[in-house]
Each structure stands twice: as structure tokens, then as C-alpha cells.
Design goal:
4 strands, alpha+beta, 49% helix
């Protein structure tokens, strides 16, 4: 297994998130508890519900595909980059190609595994998609990063 690639120049928030992740991992058994299915899955459901409410409040259009609830036609300020997956909900304006949806479906699987720990882990992995392990795992080419 190759070691994780670290961002070249992490910003202050990314460094703080990475420090918090290291602190959590240092506590014996805490990582195991946070990744325990009985803890991670309710976090995934909560994140899904929050994202669904967010997209609905903003009057997005709903459809399903690739195991995702897709809420599209949202204002560009309502999500990051070309779209954002939170839980099982993909929020976007019009980024709906099959490869992108496959990429976002991989993020849904990550949410199911990590639950509410994912945002912190994602932030600690860095904002540069080419070095963010979650983006690499979801497929950089499918996500439109290469």
C-alpha cells in the first residue's frame, strides 16, 4: 500500500484538521468507535437528511441515479466546485454527466463508511483534488480533475 500523498502547501484550516485527526487517532480505541457502523451510519443518515433539506429549501430539482439523490439547478454558491456529495445527496447546478455521477457515487460510499467523520478527514486530506485521497479514490478522471 502506498503512503498517502500530502498537500504541498496546506492552509491553516487543513493543518488544524490534520492535527485534530492525529489527536483522535492517538486516543486508543477512538478511531475504532468513530468508524464503527453503529456510529458512522446514523451520521451518514443525518448528513443525507441535512443535504436533502438544504437542496429542497433552495428549490432544487430532484432525481435519482447511481444510488444518489441528485438535487440540481441550485445556485452556484450552494455547493463546492462543480457539485458536492453530502451523505447520499449530490448537490449541483448542472454537472450531471455519467462519469461525474459515478465519481460522486464513490463519495456516497465514503460517507457510509466514515459517517460524520468524513468532512474532517476530507478537510485534513487537503483542498487540492490531485492529492486528496478521497478524490483519488473516487477517480480523478471521472470527477473531471485530470
Amino acid at each position: 500500500m502506498t503512503p498517502p500523498v500530502r498537500p504541498l502547501h496546506p492552509n491553516r484550516v487543513e493543518r488544524a484538521a490534520a492535527g485534530l485527526v492525529r489527536a483522535v487517532v492517538a486516543v486508543p480505541g477512538l478511531r475504532r468507535v468513530l468508524l464503527w457502523r453503529a456510529v458512522a451510519l446514523p451520521g451518514y443518515w443525518f448528513a443525507t437528511a441535512c443535504a436533502f433539506v438544504w437542496g429542497s429549501i433552495l428549490l432544487g430539482r430532484h432525481r435519482t441515479s447511481h444510488g444518489l439523490h441528485i438535487i440540481h439547478r441550485l445556485p452556484r454558491w450552494a455547493f463546492g466546485r462543480g457539485g458536492t456529495t453530502i451523505g447520499a445527496v449530490y448537490l449541483t447546478r448542472d454537472n450531471l454527466s455519467d462519469p461525474v455521477l459515478a465519481h460522486e457515487a464513490a463519495h456516497r460510499v465514503q460517507w457510509r463508511h466514515y459517517g460524520m467523520s468524513l468532512p474532517l478527514l476530507y478537510l485534513a486530506a487537503g483542498s487540492a483534488p490531485l492529492t486528496n485521497r478521497f478524490e483519488v479514490e473516487a477517480g480523478l478522471e471521472r470527477g473531471g480533475y485530470v
